Every structure is written in C-alpha cells, then in structure tokens.
Amino acid sequence: MVLTLSSTYIPPANTHLTPADQMLVAKPLTDLAKDAVASAGPAAVYHPSADAEPMQSLEAIDTWVGRSASRALPRIIEIAKGAQSVLNATFKTFQSTLAATYPDLAGTKYGFTVEADGALKVLNEAGQLSSSQTQRLTLLLNQSKDLKAAAITFRDASIDMVDADSPWSGNYLGRYSLTKENFAATIDLVPLFNKPGSVPPQEYADGFFFSQLEYKGELATRETETAMLERRGAQGLASLY
C-alpha cells in the first residue's frame, strides 16, 4: 500500500452530526422470550467446602528482651579474672599445706564453693570423701582465712560480671541470674583451676565458668533482672548496669 501525503488541506465531508428525529422505544418481550427468562437458572452456584470458621481474636505476646551489656563490662571482666587468679594461687597454697598435714584428704577428688553467708562448702560429687572427711575438710577450708577471703571476692566479682553482661549481646552471661543465694548450687570453684590434659577433655570443658552456668545456672527472667537492677540501685551502682 502506498500512502500519499499532501500539504493541501482537504476538509471532511461532514463536520456536524444531525440528531435523528426518531425516538427509541422499548419493545415488550415476546411470550417465547418471557418463558426463556423464567426458566433460566443462575450462571454459577457457590458451594463452600466447609463451614466458615469465625475469626479468632488476636492475642498479644509480651516478649522480654533484657538489658544491653554495660559499658563497664570489660573492666568488670578484668576484675573477675584477677580475683580468679588470686583464688587459684591461694588454693594451690592450701593444697600444699593439706598434702603435708592431711595426705588422706589431699589425695581425694573434691570441690568447694561459697554459700550465701560466705562459708565455704565442700562438694563431694566424685564420692571419694567419707562423712567424717567431709566435715574435717570443711573445717580446714573455713579456717584458711586467705582462701576464704579469696573465694568470697571471686564470688562477688563473678556476680558483678554476670549482672553487667546482657542476655543477647556481650558474652551472653546475662542469660543467667547469679546471686549469693544460688552461687553454691551453680559454681564449683575447683574445676576452674583445671589445666588442659589434667582431666578428660569433656570434664575440662564442663569446668569452665560459662559451662557451669549453662548446665546448672538459673535462667534470668524479667523478674530476676528487675530485682538485680533494684539491688544495684540501692548500692548506688545502677549506672553501671
């Protein structure tokens, strides 16, 4: 097809439409059309497959996130490390004295911890101590003023460290609630001094501070965190936590 373009303007044949004089009139349906409409069914019928369930009401879920790690956490960790180092040295001195004076006790496997009132408590998880040996060792531990003081210092520094940490950042120690009341049920001090190769690998790993918290510690909650912050506030240390 060839299209020819011209610059000459050609007017349309008719630029105006003239309205018709004829009016549109609706015609009544014939009897045949009326019968067809009356007998016609719906185009589609919806059949639900099951009874519609009423919409359930929404339930609000309150989630506890917990505090952020304190800016003082690195310094508090160093204090706890120093307290553990002093406790380790003091315990070695105690063991040396025990071996010289009570070799039957020094040759047994035992642990010890700190109770809420600051007394040292013997732990006989290996079952190598008799009742009388446990009593005697408990007396000797508490008579060692240096060891007792070092153990209490480490306990308090450990609680400070856990309180300063966060449940979701830092070292995650804040997942747990460590207090003077539950420390004895959570931390055995002797495994903290184990050296690689001195005990089986699993026992060595289980002796870590965090490991003991993980399998024996009390999980922190909104309530325990609130109580901790109130306690720190009463001590004038709220800004650190």
Helix content: 40-55%
What would you report as the Rg, rounded to the nearest angstrom?
42 Å
Distance between the termini: 88 Å
Number of strands: 4
Output the strand order for the largest sheet: 1-2
**Major sheet attributes:** 2 strands, antiparallel
The number of helices is 8
> What is the approximate shape?
elongated
Q: Can you tell me the residue ranges where pLDDT is under 50 for at least 5 consecutive residues?
A: 1-6
Beta-strand content estimate: under 5%
Fold and architecture overview:
The chain is mainly alpha-helical and 241 residues long. It has a domain at 73-236. 42% of the residues lie in helices and 5% in strands. The protein has eight helices and four strands. It has helices spanning 31-39, 73-101, 103-106, 131-143, 145-164, 201-206, 209-216, 222-234; strands spanning 111-114, 120-123, 176-177, 218-219. The strands form two sheets. A two-stranded antiparallel ribbon has the order 1-2. Helix 2 packs antiparallel against helix 5 (145-164). The longest helix has 29 residues, at 73-101. It is elongated, with a radius of gyration of 42 Å. The protein starts with 30 loop residues before the first helix and ends in a 7-residue tail after the last helix. The relative contact order is 0.12. Mean pLDDT is 85; it is low at 1-6.
